[in-house]
Amino acid sequence: MSNRRYENALCGIAQKIPPVWMMRQAGRYHKHYQALRQKHSFEDLCKIPELAAEVAFGPVDEFDFDAAILFSDILFPLEALGIGLEYTDSGPRLEFAISDEAAFRRLRSAEDSISFMEFQKRAMSLTRERIPKDKSLIGFVGGPWTLFTYAVSGKHEGNLFLPKTLTKVREKFLDTIVQFLKGNIRLQFEGGADVVLVFDTAGGDLSPDLFREIVLPGIKILAEEFPGKIGYYGRGTSSSHFDVLRGVSALAGFGFDHRWDLREVMKVEKRMIQGNFDQALLFMEKEEFKKTLMRFLAPFSELSPEERVGWVCGLGHGVMPKTPEANVKTFVETVRETFL
After folding, report:
1. Domain segments of the chain: what residues?
2. Phi-psi region for residue 233, left (φ > 0), alpha (ψ -120 to 50) or beta?
3. 79 in helix, strand or coil?
4. CA–CA separation, 205 and 159 (whole Å)
């Protein structure tokens, strides 16, 4: 059983109250996560299914989100393919970079490495058991392009000149990672995911032409492998990027960061639309935050349920560390009160 509001959003059924969930809703800001993190490493919280399920359960239990999301990390496919991965206090560290074809040849094949991800399937299954039956369950993977930027540079910041210019290596890597992600996504669905989102946090770093060349083919393959079950979120993307992907009819919908006016998107798109309150504003003092949130919601409340069909209310990106928990709770309650 899934959450009715979230299921309506996926199916394009108009409704008064939109579902609410947040990227990184199970994370460092939350005392439930902090208590577990004092006893276990980040990697153990991800890779030990019982712990991953407990982390995912915490914010659903406390804040009553409409959906839980798999607690994991986008970089594990790189580890599965043979790039050593270590999580340090300063962030993830990869053992070597895919900077040339010789380095690419060190990778395992998708077929030989996919079994590494079985822990995500088990985590999904246990999360499904742990959360209430009337909540939906979201899976996720990193976008192929974003995973390539990490594989080459160890991050997706800066000008990304190497990922953008290593054309031959990129083509081979993307072929491999797309095949791997097909298997990875399948495992998450077998574990009980209602939908799997592709988080392409480096997507907006590409020009629309490169986005069409680099991102579109892989996303099209994944969406058509699981029609109506894959959503796409590209951080920092523009309307030109969005136009490239809108033609992929098999996609379930899209996530948008806070730079977008979702009312304009809703005029042309009736699939799932996720977003997009600015996550930084959750740091406001309580009363100021409530007023700011009400101003954000007011234009949506003027739309009919049919005009905002598919909307999943959340943030433009993930909940940031040290975000006040009280404001997260206020966010969920205020959205439901506004549209009641």
Report:
1. 4-339
2. beta
3. helix
4. 8
| Full-model pTM | 0.96
Residue 82, exposed/middle/buried by CB under 10 A (0-12, 13-18, 19+)? middle
User: Is the CB of residue 143 less than 8 Å from the CB of residue 200?
Assistant: yes
Which SS3 state, helix, strand or coil, does residue 5 take? helix
Instruction: List pLDDT tens digits, range 216-266.
Output: 999 999 999 999 999 999 999 999 999 999 999 999 999 999 999 999 999
Tell the residue number behind the tokens 């951080």, with chain if given: 235
Cα distances (Å, whole numbers) of residue 57 to 104, 208, 230, 282: 38, 38, 22, 21
> Domain 4-339 - what CATH class?
alpha beta
CB distance 253 to 272 below 8 Å: yes
Query: H helices of 192-316, where?
Result: 208-214, 216-225, 239-246, 262-268, 286-301
DSSP percent split of the chain into helix, strand, coil, nearest 5: 50, 15, 35
Q: What are phi and psi of 89, to 5 degrees?
A: -65, -25
- In angstroms, the CA 40 to CA 125 distance is 21
Give the residue among 340, 335, 338, 337 at the shortest CA–CA distance from 19: 335
Angle between helices 216-225 and 239-246 (to 10 degrees): 40
Calpha distance 51→124 (Å, rounded): 11
Nearest CA to 146 out of 80, 79, 205 is that of: 205
Distance CA 236, CA 204 (A): 4
